[in-house]
Amino acid sequence: MFDILAITGPIFAAIALGYVSTRNGPFERADMRVFGQFVIKLALPALLFTALTKRDVGEILNASYLLAYLLGTLCLIGLGLAWGKRTGKSATHSVVAVMGMACSNSSFVGYPILLLAVAPVAAVALALNTLVENILVIPLLLALAERSRGEAGHWTVAVSQSLKRLAVNPVILALAGGLVVSVMRWKLPDPVLRTVNLLAVSSAGLSLFAIGGTLVGLPLRGLGRQVLPIALAKLVLHPMLVLLAVLLIPLTGLPALDPSLRTAAMLLAAMPTMSIYPILAQSYGEEDLGATALLVTTVASFFSLSGLIWWVN
């Protein structure tokens, strides 16, 4: 158990430091947005670009991983929507809740955890997850959310706008650039690589600190019953469905996943909900639900991730 805490302890210590430093220390909550923007627009793209340029394209575009993670996530989305319908939730509320269940905080919390648990495949797994979540899962959920409003044709506009944003997203551009360098087998000059590496190594620690600061002041106003299903689905059901999909992948004719990538897929599915969840939920009048779910899943994931890593080991 001490070995497990050695993995999860530093992660949540960094989050706690960000929380305390923002609540009582020298930083303001607004500063966390700046730190987050630095991670998303510079540090994380540098990390992904560096990781992809060092690997063969066949290792990066792992069809078994992509399909397994996508299938597990789609199953969760289907179950979440069925739960919402059965419990009498509105269509929009159900879709917003499913966003919290199906979209992981892969970048801010996931990568640092993988770096300690399965370091050799951490960056590749993060890149694969980024492709699935940003190109397929999030646009699909946004389309469903817009369609639930009953505005004919409006969901297509949501998808179009989402794809346009992706086209200029630094993370997606870094993925595309890294893939091009990998395919062309280009060797970049050492000064360029060292500069990119300097930015990349700042990603893990700063992202965790920013998450901690972001949690300051989030509401907990009587949303326990609404948040509990989201937390259970995100932290328990999602990794189990992804693991099931991973185990079934050989039946499709694709090769079985390497044990390290299998562990990475399950761990990334078990991460707390994505950090932009409250922002997306705000567009549909569910900002309190989104913010509370982010807080609850982040805190609870300390225990669920520790237990999952213990079980995997």
Q: What's the CATH C level?
A: Mainly Alpha
From the spread of the alpha carbons, the general shape counts as globular
Total domain modules: 1
Strand content: under 5%
Topology:
Layout: H1 2-23, H2 29-53, H3 57-60, H4 63-86, H5 91-102, H6 106-117, H7 122-148, H8 154-167, H9 170-184, H10 190-200, H11 203-214, H12 224-248, H13 259-269, H14 277-282, H15 287-312
Helix pairs in contact: 1-11, 1-15, 2-7, 2-9, 2-10, 2-11, 4-5, 4-7, 4-12, 5-7, 5-12, 6-7, 6-11, 6-13, 7-8, 7-13, 12-13, 12-15
Structural features, described:
The structure is a single chain. The protein has 313 residues and is mainly alpha-helical. It has one domain (2-312): Up-down Bundle (Na+/H+ antiporter like fold), CATH 1.20.1530.20. It is built from 15 helices and no strands. Helix 5 (91-102) packs antiparallel against helix 7 (122-148), helix 6 (106-117) packs antiparallel against helix 13 (259-269) and helix 12 (224-248) runs antiparallel to helix 13. The longest helix has 27 residues, at 122-148. The model has no long low-confidence stretch (mean pLDDT 85).
